[in-house]
Amino acid sequence: MKAIKSNQSRRSRLLKAVTIITAIMTLGLTSGCSSTFEPWVKPYERDNLADPIMSMNRNPVSMSYTHHAYQAREGARGAEGGAGGGCGCN
Question: For the stretch 37-59, what's the b/e string if a residue is b when 16 or more beta carbons lie within 10 angstroms of its beta carbon?
């Protein structure tokens, strides 16, 4: 009789621990959805990020031409969804 009671007590403690851990994890995961945080980039700082120096490519004009040639080359297959055929005259 004592073994059954201790087994039920152990189950009850385990269930309580699992419930507490689940509640803590749920609170932790849902706290990321709150909208109380301010935006990382303020509206008056966005002009700094739009500066061409912040671009990932070194030469935007050359990259534009390379991108156009890639779209003309891959246009027949539809790799990037560019319009036109393979001649590059679009």
Answer: eeeeeeeeeeeeeeeeeeeeeee
Three-state DSSP at 27 gives helix
Residue 39 to residue 70: CA distance in whole angstroms:
36
Inter-residue contact 72 to 87 (CB < 8 Å): yes
Q: Using one digit for the tens of pLDDT, what is the confidence trace for 16-62?
A: 999 999 999 988 887 766 666 666 778 888 887 777 677 777 787 78
For the chain, the C-alpha Rg in angstroms (whole number) is 30
CB 82 within 8 A of CB 71: yes
For the entire predicted model, the pTM comes to: 0.34
Which run of H or of E encompasses 49?
helix 46-49
